[in-house]
Amino acid sequence: MKKKGFIFDLDGVIVDTAKYHYLAWKKLANELGFEFTLEQNELFKGVSRKRCLEILLEIGNISASQEQFDQWMIEKNEDYLNYIEKMDASEILPDVPRVLQFLKNREVPIALGSASKNATPILEKVGLLPYFNSIVDGNSVTKAKPDPEVFLIAASNLNTEPQNCVVFEDAVAGIQAANIAQMTSIGIGEPSTLHEADYNFKDFTKMTDEFLNDLLQ
Ligand code: B16
Ligand code: MG
Predict the structure, then answer these.
(1) Helix or strand run (H / E) with residue 200
(2) Which long-range contacts (CB under 8 A, 24 or more apart) does 123-132 make?
(3) pLDDT tens-digit map of 45-62
(4) Looking at 33-169, which runs of residues are DSSP E strands?
(5) What protein residues have CB closer than 5 angstroms to ion ligand 2?
(6) Closest-lying ligand to the alpha carbon of 47?
(7) Backbone angles phi, psi at 216, to 5 degrees
(8) Distance (Å) from CA 9 to ligand 2 centroid
(9) pTM to 2 decimals?
(10) Domains, the chain, with CATH or none
(11) What is the pLDDT of residue 57?
């Protein structure tokens, strides 16, 4: 059997932090005098904080000096950190611990591959940090998804080849990154949105042990 590696995205796959990102971005948009809708928030999934602010300012038709831009990035993150402060295990998405435990029982190495710079404290808060052999997040990458950098670093950290890695992702850019890296891509969410994935699941509850076993072959 080839040495496998399993890579999980964070936001939208392990926990639903998109709602907290949304509240923090909406607060900033409102302060700047415009609305930010849940629909527009979809564009932010899997996208770096910097790129999110660029898009937000495009939506509001606002230009900013570098200094102002950096200040708004800090403000948004402080608000976001306030929202996630109280997160606990109840915010883990359904059946994520079952899948992690299944892999752990079979000694399959597991990595996180996320755009978030807040990944480690979130995993700590919800109690899942011990499952991960490697954390690759927004602090470790220079290029955002769909660039495959985040997943390639994860494969290397797990000491396995990209072709032997499986990626769970909720963002189109993340599925594209996994495909470019020649990994098996599994979309978690709307199949119509994530149709570029090799496999699609609404969430982990429909992912059987048989399916996971097949991925291990
Ligand atoms: P932060 P993922 C991404 O996480 C989110 O989907 C995206 O909305 C967010 O802007 C990005 O992390 C950066 O997060 O501000 O915490 O560094 O889906 O790649 O786990
Ligand atoms: Mg995500």
Answers:
(1) strand 199-201
(2) 123/10, 123/14, 125/84, 125/87, 125/88, 126/14, 126/15, 126/87, 126/88, 126/89, 126/91, 126/92, 127/88, 127/89, 128/14, 128/92, 128/96, 128/97, 128/100, 131/100, 131/101, 131/104
(3) 989 999 999 999 999 999
(4) 110-113, 134-136, 165-169
(5) 9, 11-12, 46, 170-171
(6) 1
(7) -80, -15
(8) 5
(9) 0.94
(10) 5-15+90-216 (3.40.50.1000), 18-84 (1.10.150.240)
(11) 98
Q: Which ligand is nearest to the CA of 187?
A: 2
**Residues near 31 by Cβ (< 8 Å), separated by ≥ 6?**
none
- Strand-strand pairing, 184-188 and 110-113: unpaired
Q: How far is the CA of 104 from the centre of ligand 1 (A)?
A: 25
Task: Please confirm, yes or no, whether 11 is among the known catalytic residues.
Answer: yes
Nearest residue CA, atom 8 of ligand 1?
45
**The predicted structure's pLDDT at residue 170:** 95
pLDDT digits (tens, 9 = 90+) for 2-53: 789 999 999 999 999 999 999 999 999 999 999 999 999 988 998 999 999 9
Share of the chain above pLDDT 90, in %: 96
User: Of the bound ligands, which one is closest to the alpha carbon of residue 19?
Assistant: 1
Check if the beta carbon of residue 21 is closer than 8 Å to that of residue 46.
no
Q: CB within 6 Å of ligand 1 — which residues?
A: 9-12, 21, 44-49, 52, 77, 114-118, 138, 171
- pLDDT at position 3: 83
Task: Report CA(10)–ligand 1 centroid distance (Å).
Answer: 8
